[in-house]
Amino acid sequence: LVRLRQRLASSQGGLGRGLLALLSRERLDEDTWESIEDTLLAADIGVVPTQRVVDNLRTRLRVQGTEVADARAVLREELLALVDPSMDRRLQVSGTDGNPGVVLVVGVNGAGKTTTVGKIARILVAEDLKVTLGAADTFRAAAVDQLATWGERVGVEVIRGAEGSDPASVAFEAVKQGVEAGVDTVIVDTAGRLQNKQGLMDELGKVKRVIEKQAPVTEVLLVLDATTGQNGLIQARVFREVVDVTGIVLTKLDGSAKGGIVVAVQRELGVPVKLVGLGEGPDDLAPFDAGAFVDALLG
Ligand code: GDP
Question: Which positions bind GTP (predicted)?
Answer without folding.
Answer: 107-114, 189-193, 251-254
